[in-house]
Amino acid sequence: MSLWPGTLKVSETLVAQLKQAKPADGQLPPTWLSQWDDLWCPVAAWLAEKVTASQTPLILGVHGGQGSGKSTLSNALKGIYKEAFDWNVVVISIDDLYLSHAERAALGETTHPLLRTRGVPGTHDAHLGIRLFQQLKSLKSGETVKFPAFDKASDDRLPPSDWHTVSGPVDLIIFEGWCVGCTPVSAEALSTPLNTLEATEDSDGRWREWVNRQLATLYRDWFDLIDELIMLKVPDMDAVLRWRSQQETENRANAQGTTDRSFSDQALVRFIQHYERLTRQALDSLPANASLVLNINQSHEVDAVTCGGRSQ
């Protein structure tokens, strides 16, 4: 039975074309690959209609808690559209735009010690992100743009020789990240610590208030550039910890830097607490700002698809 909402019509012609571009084994998780005809092909067709109707390269935001499958989905869509339409799709992970290890160390000294840890709004180069979107949307044939690459195992930006290079023109920009599309909350909502990290290392609320202010200012400008937003809605924080632990093993295996700053199991629990507040906020509020909401269950299958508030 199809998971695709009957109220959301997609082009049968596009669906037929995209069915021929089904990802190979390994490009999507087995559970997702088994849902190709009923879910992911209609998703790809829905987005393809948006792309072809746009006068400029469309920016798709992909939001989801850690380990939800944002990068996997984004790279699969890139391959699908290349195969079906020969589109030039650029995938930008918000992780690649983290400030360097040294820059975050300096931010920890001048603003708050918790900002040494990558993740929350304010630990990315949002100015660069905005400028990058503008450059990519106007990129012409023969022109190129480079943007950073980040190595999580060494917790640092890679040297420019290892950065991503994009040649124009661009057909679609996919912007994926755990806090993509997140919005600020009221001061009252921040008043009570949510977990051990906030209670012991941010007892006065200064860190979470600073992060919230980033969402209300520079990050709002950045996220306002998104045309459509897909939310991969995780079931709970226990699933996030379990899936993020699996990612940490992969990060070590794929490390490119020279320094190992990967997490032990105990350190990973503390690390996840930096993300918990915004993850929970997003579960409550982000569906109202999303185009599509895909519910992911504990088995990492999509078990429901709904139209978000952006598509109403």
Describe this structure in words.
- Helices cover 41% and strands 15% of the residues.
- The chain is an alpha/beta fold and 312 residues long.
- A hairpin with a 5-residue loop joins strand 9 and strand 10 (302-307).
- The radius of gyration is 19 Å and the shape is globular.
Strand content: 15-25%
The value of Rg in angstroms is 19 Å
Terminal-residue CA separation? 24 Å
What gross morphology would you assign?
globular
Order of strands in the sheet with most strands: 2-7-1-8-9-10
Low-confidence stretches are none
Give helix and strand order, one letter per element, not per position.
Answer: HHHEHEHHEEEEEHHHEHHEE
Mean of residue pLDDT? 92
Judged by helices, strands and strand pairing, the structural class is alpha/beta
Share in helix:
40-55%
Number of strands: 10
Largest sheet: 6 strands, mixed
Total helical segments: 11
Oligomeric status: single chain
Short structural summary:
By secondary structure, this protein is an alpha/beta fold. The protein has helices at 12-19, 30-33, 36-53, 70-85, 101-110, 126-137, 196-201, 206-216, 218-223, 237-253, 265-285; strands at residues 58-64, 89-93, 144-147, 150-151, 156-157, 164-167, 172-177, 228-233, 292-296, 302-307.
Identify the notable features of this structure and list them briefly.
single chain, 312 residues, alpha/beta, two-stranded antiparallel sheet, 10 strands, 41% helix, 15% strand
Lay out the secondary structure.
Elements: H1 12-19, H2 30-33, H3 36-53, E1 58-64, H4 70-85, E2 89-93, H5 101-110, H6 126-137, E3 144-147, E4 150-151, E5 156-157, E6 164-167, E7 172-177, H7 196-201, H8 206-216, H9 218-223, E8 228-233, H10 237-253, H11 265-285, E9 292-296, E10 302-307
Parallel strand pairs: 1-7, 1-8, 2-7, 8-9
Antiparallel strand pairs: 3-6, 4-5, 9-10
